[in-house]
Write the structure tokens for this entry.
Amino acid sequence: MAEVIVKGLTKKYGKVKAVDNLNLDIRDGELVVLLGPSGCGKTTTLRCIAGLEVPDTGEIWIGGRCVNNVPPKDRDIAMVFQSYALYPHMTVFENIAFPLKMRKTPKREINVRVKTVAEKLDIIELLGRKPAELSGGQQQRVALAAALVREPKVFLMDEPLSNIDAKLRIFMRTEIKKLQRELKITTIYVTHDQIEAMAIADRIGVMNHGKLQQFSSPDELYLNPENAFVAGFIGSPPMNMIEGDLVQLDEEVLVDAKLFTLKLPGTLNTLKALKSRRVLVGIRPEDIRVLREETESINFKAQVCGIEPLGVNTIVILEAGPVLLRAVVPGDLRFFAGEKVGVVLPQSRVYIFDGETGERVK
Amino acid sequence: MHNNYFKAIMTLVRKVGMHLFLLFLGFWVLMPFLWMITASLKPPELFNAPPHLIPIYFHWSNYIVAFQTAPFGRYYLNTLIVVLGIVPSQLFLSSLAGYAFARLNFWGKKLLFMLLLSTLMVPMYVTIIPSYLIIKKLGLLNTYLGLILPFGVSAFGIFLFRQFYVSFPKELEDRALIDGCSRLQIWRYIFLPLSKPALAALGIFSFLFAWNSFLWPLIITTDPKMWTIQLGLAMFSGKYTTHWTPLMAGTTVSVLPAIVLFIVFQKYYIKHLVLSTRLG
């Protein structure tokens, strides 16, 4: 078991900064997910931790030891790759046993350990087969087994579920989380799927353009996003963003979004740090209330321009002037395209972001 | 209905046409072999009027004459030793160098690879005199090593393996590095076992090259004991006359191993051709 510390990691490819001054402090036995869109630097970070890429600057510490100059095989890590990276010419048994064989483990011990891990992952009957004879899910399990068999200090996973079908993916992510809890191995998991990240992580590091945007628990990310990028990336469907201007009225500050105005809780002083008067008003689809009757509490009127029934919930697409919003309502509430409705944005659930920097205005 | 019927007929016509065309091509490829085998069974006066493709009587004695005229057993053995030297060396060194060019990063890699490729454009006849002088200086004239050494590795082989390895998924190598392999072990445990098509292709190429090699053995062997099969066959064609029937008997015997080898490994060889066209 070990903690992983990344200090000021920077990695450039030519002129492009894939990772830019990244700092991470991952606790012993924690499952941390690096989340972000493709090209955000999450896989590069993982590869630097694995020792497959050499950082330009910065330090990587695993279990209290700086591993910058330690080759991958001596870092006591194991990695599961997106394509599983199973050796096609070896049987499942040989694939799982290979890291042990390379470390000159006695044959008898190899046998015992491969069988133990195969039992744990329920692949004991596949040991004699070649990877090409396995389904995607089975290959995934073999890749996990091959990584687990050495009982590494740190477990690295690079989008391990992206190649299997949606149903199996949900099942496997539960399995991975269960396994990680059981073995208490520090795990760094890379994905672009925010639902997957929210489901399994102890903490999530959201990355964009090589920079860490926020590093907190899933709840914290959802409830207290630090900037517009995190707010828009976490949650499905994503947070609605409406452009607006800050307007001063006596001692109060209002957001004027053309469609509606919102009173901000802070005073003018708290907003002096703002770089511009342009802001983004963010509201999660599940926080929007859609009403049929016109009450005084409504912020503005809108027209339903589409519905996406998902069973438990329905996504209602609302059009109000130039603004398009998504709202999530209970599945038993029926709306129809073309219907006129009232929209309520609860004051306490509204997020304001700086229009220029994207930083949250608290 | 009529349309379907017409389509089925057209497909049939196309298929029959294709097969006829392939048969025609196949016939032209097989013709020299057929002629060689039938000529090896004809009476000494090969050219008769009217000419027969298949002889009326089979003269098996041509084979005995061939083996009595020249020590073919010895030639066979010599050729076998040379082939057993050249082929494994080609496979081993080409795949190692190909791996380095495909997967390692070292200073001057691109330049070195270009230089290597440029040697493909130099005909063998240009280098034969310097090669001879080197082998002579090393005291390797009339030795097996002298016959093997200059062909132990080839730019073509390195190029072939390099192209083959470039297409390997990088993740396999990454995993092997984490699993505890050194670079050499990655080659040994992962790349080499997955190279069967390339090994078979280069194996067949270098075998045919070594088996059919004529000029180099002719130049560096003066002792008939060191002659290879191709030199032995040349004995039948004299300055004024050529003994066609024993020559063809000897040739038939000499091409047999190549044909057997091709039949055994053709599965991998074809696989490689398919792979290389897809990649190319």
